[in-house]
Amino acid sequence: MPRSYYWRRPLVWPGIGVWIGDSCPEVITHRQVVVRTKNPDGKSKHDAEAAKLSEKQRKKNSELLKILRIGDRERRVQAICDLAGFSCDDRVRKALEDVLLSDPDAELRKQVATAFGKTKNPSVVAALEKAKAEDSSREVRQAAYRSIIMIEGY
């Protein structure tokens, strides 16, 4: 018998092709994005800014959120630009993250990713990481990557 690469001759189950004694390979059915945050306590200066919003600004943000959901494309782009500065507010951040992760228009998703990078809010990094890993548009993935770099630095 010729020398084998293995220290012992592998046993093959007839007709199946599985080696006895070896573990089967792990099959990955779907990808999952794991995001590690640098701030473990979850508090940041953006949380304090959210508490300072006036009632007038909250009303304006509510109107912009409606436009973001049902407006035409130009008005939605303008709403994204206006709302991005208020990403410290949970409702605004959630609405913009929904656009980033599930809107059918790639240009709007790219606008949200770029706007998030300008705010430098670390609480949006998880959505940007997910968009960077899973978005179908190359431009959106690049915009998300640039925004992550702008927020976290090199």
Give a brief rundown of this model.
The chain is mainly alpha-helical and 154 residues long. The protein has helices at 45-51, 55-70, 73-84, 90-102, 106-119, 125-134, 138-152, and strands spanning 11-12, 19-20. A two-stranded antiparallel sheet has the order 1-2.
Strand content: under 5%
Order of helices and strands: EEHHHHHHH
Major sheet summary line: 2 strands, antiparallel
- Biggest sheet, strands in spatial order? 1-2
- Which CATH architecture of the domain at 52-152? Alpha Horseshoe
Radius of gyration: 24 Å
The percentage helix is 55-70%
Descriptive account of the structure:
- The model has no long low-confidence stretch (mean pLDDT 80).
- It is built from seven helices and two strands, in the order E-E-H-H-H-H-H-H-H.
- Helix 2 (55-70) runs antiparallel to helix 3.
- It is mainly α and 154 residues long.
- A hairpin with a 6-residue loop joins strand 1 (11-12) and strand 2 (19-20).
- It is globular.
- It has helices at residues 45-51, 55-70, 73-84, 90-102, 106-119, 125-134, 138-152; strands at 11-12, 19-20.
- It starts with 10 loop residues before the first strand and ends with a helix.
- It has a domain at 52-152: Alpha Horseshoe (Leucine-rich Repeat Variant), CATH 1.25.10.10.
- Strands 1-2 form a two-stranded antiparallel ribbon.
